[in-house]
Amino acid sequence: MSENTGTMPYISFLHAESKHKGIFKWILSTDHKRIGIMYMMGMLGFLLVGITFGFLMKLEMLTPGKTLMDAQTYNALFTLHGVIMIFLFIIPGLSAVFGNFMLPIQIGARDVAFPRLNLLSWWLYVIGGILAISSLFLQGGPIDTGWTFYVPYSLRTGTNVSLPLFAAFILGFSSILTGINFVTTVHRLRAPGMDFFKMPLFVWAVYSTAWIQVIATPVIGITIILVIVERIFSLGIFDPALGGDPLLFQHLFWIYSHPAVYIMILPAMGAVSEIIPTFAKRTIFGYKAIAYSSLAIAFIGYFVWAHHMFTSGISDTSRFIFSLLTFLVAIPSGVKVFNWVATLYKGSITPGVPLLFVMMFIFLFSIGGLTGLVLGSLATDVHLTDTYFVVAHFHYVMFGGTVMIFFASLHYWLPKMFGRMYNEKVARWSVGLIFVGFNMLYFTMFILGYEGQPRRYWDYLPQFQTLHVISTVGSWILISGILLMIGNLHRGMKRGPLAGNNPWGGKTLEWTIPSPPPVHNFDEIPVITHGPYNYGDEEVK
Amino acid sequence: MSETITHNQMEHIHTEHVHRDDFGAKIGMWLFLFTELLLFGGLFLLYMAYRLQYSHEFHIGARELNIGIGTFNTIILLTSSMTMALSIAAMQRSRKGLSLFLLASTIALAFGFLVNKFFEWSAKFGHGLYPGSETLLGKPRGEYLFYGMYYAMTGLHAIHVIIGMIILTFMFVFIVRNSITSTNYIKLENSGLYWHLVDLIWIFLFPLFYLMR
């Protein structure tokens, strides 16, 4: 299984020549695989920046009062941690890296529908990233509004608000163009015979995500532009002193930013639906239910935004309605989890590292999901809102959910992307460290929040210190696990043993072509005759 | 991995570029137009909320706007949409010269729209009706917001007119250089779609600001 038998010599996309030289071979390439890898490099870079900020924040919380920095620096850190992690890491997320790399291959295409637009998206991403980071060093100091940019404070503060906001606008543009590209690709470039219900579930998930990117992102685009214009020209639209209504900002902000959490999580759920059948050697249980549940999450996710505003002063009627709608999201999410577990049942399971990450995901995401219901209920939310409970919930679903699957996907698709394998033993150690560190860091926050520790505070009462110390030590363990993992992946990518075309015995199309893939993926576009996970057929034979 | 393979691959890349999917390009364009609608949608939502909250002040504010210029600009944009559509039709019939003339007319009309807009805004500024001015700050908050919405929405629309003019100028060059032809005119058609969107948004802005008084 691991040897590269009978493959003709070919030029892999990693070594292909073009009319450009040096680094321009990459940064001017329209090859979807190279763009995917460039996204990966950019995002891992920003992930490390975000982790550093998180590490410093946790260090500050080691003791009550000032440990390391003053309160204003802390405000800037939690804002930038949020802005970088959300807009530069987790929103492009799996979609930009593995969507770009795998989606065309999984539907049997040679590239995306608009390769040059795809490159433009990446450039916009880079420009947005540079603007966001450069705002740190400009006069006025780094932004201190929190990543939600709530008015009227974001209109009044003297820190650099406009530049990071403009960066978020550009990143939104990048996200929209990627969305348009993927929707068109799925509609136009599927290989002959690949109807919608023969598509791998990862494609379904990226496709649903692309729709959310197209439908939701423009709303935050205009909202952000209005805040910038408001700061320069005082239009009055969001400024209560001039007759505007700050609540309308919150509505418009969350009309995008709630669906955005599904932009973050849906592709991860898609990757889970790839990894589980491969490692359980079973056809996925409930293919159509999982496919439709992606669309259902995309759809319902658009109508729950006001659950971020339960204590902002909206009417009781709308609070009831939004609370109810919020509960409804749990149904398609539950459908997915039960189908994944049912796929594992009586499977021939190989506990490879990607599957270990998936197991961790199911455990952490379930905790995150259930605590989400606690926050979705009106009565309990009033008690817990704006406490560490929310921080813990958010990190359990986003970090424990999306990022764990991002890590899983790095391990799952690394052999395909680079043709080489990571060290299994080191990878297992990193999984263990991440699991222990993660729960120490964030589970304590549930308790802290329940006991009344408000979020975004620089100081705390002495009785919270024990839990804060456990949490901070957890952050060290977590970070060492992540660094170990990245080091292992990097080493594997450069010097690991050759992986062969199909190290996991996967059934989707990317495993039928050489690793790393040739420039044009397929010499001949395949004709699809069966579903993506036909393990059952093999058993019959 | 010999040189010859590299060479073959290069040729392969070359033939790939011929791949053309006009229908796909149209899907992409329609999706993009959809996002444009949503971009303005945020503003329309704000307009609706404030119109409900300050209906009397919006009523008074609208009476200050010059309905004559508004109507004239509406006629200009509608005409430009027509010349745009005719330019595509001319291209389909291989009448390059006529297509170029109609496209140039579209750009000229768009310019005329902006000139009108410039005089309209200057007149308002001359009366001290701009955000942050003493005059406006002295007025009720609803009227202040009316002008805030007015400048935000017509301003964003004007930016779209300018972007449209730039795109159409590119199309003009493409036609001159024969990269848009009677068999390959999807770029021109998509630009036309964009231009119609710009027109369409104005069709909504015009009654909301000028006619509902």
Characterization of the model:
The complex is a heterodimer of chains A (541) and B (213). Chain A has 17 helices and no strands. Chain A is an all-alpha fold. Chain A has a single domain (24-540), classed as Cytochrome c oxidase-like, subunit I domain (Cytochrome C Oxidase, Chain A, Up-down Bundle), CATH 1.20.210.10. In chain A, 55% of the residues are buried. With 213 residues, chain B is an all-alpha fold. Chain B is 85% helix and 0% strand. Chain B has 8 helices and no strands. The model of chain B is unreliable at 1-17 (pLDDT under 50). Chains A and B meet through helix 7 and helix 8 of A and helix 1, helix 2 and helix 7 of B.
Nutshell version of this structure?
Chain A has 17 helices and no strands. Chain A is mainly alpha-helical and 541 residues long. The radius of gyration of chain A is 23 Å and the shape is globular.
Map the helices and strands.
The complex is a heterodimer of chains A (541) and B (213).
Chain A: H1 24-27, H2 32-60, H3 71-90, H4 93-106, H5 115-134, H6 153-156, H7 162-188, H8 201-233, H9 246-280, H10 287-300, H11 316-344, H12 353-376, H13 378-384, H14 388-418, H15 424-451, H16 465-495, H17 535-540
Chain B: H1 3-16, H2 22-53, H3 55-64, H4 67-92, H5 96-126, H6 134-138, H7 141-176, H8 186-211
Helix pairs in contact in B: 2-3, 2-7, 2-8, 3-7, 4-5, 4-8, 5-7, 7-8
Most extensive chain interface and residues per partner = A-B, 45 and 43 residues
Beginning-to-end CA distance, first to last residue of chain B: 75 Å
In the CATH scheme, what's the topology name of chain B?
A: Four Helix Bundle (Hemerythrin (Met), subunit A)
Total beta-strand segments of chain B: 0
**pLDDT averaged over residues of chain A:** 92
* Main sheet attributes: strand count, strand direction, barrel closure of chain A: none
Model regions low in confidence, pLDDT < 50 over at least 5 residues of chain B: 1-17
Q: Which whole number gives the mean pLDDT of chain B?
A: 90
Using the coordinates above, name the CATH class of chain B: Mainly Alpha
- Summing up helix and strand content along with how strands pair, one would put the structural category of chain A as mainly alpha
Structural class of chain B: mainly alpha
| Count of runs of 4 or more consecutive helical residues of chain B | 8
Strand content of chain B: under 5%
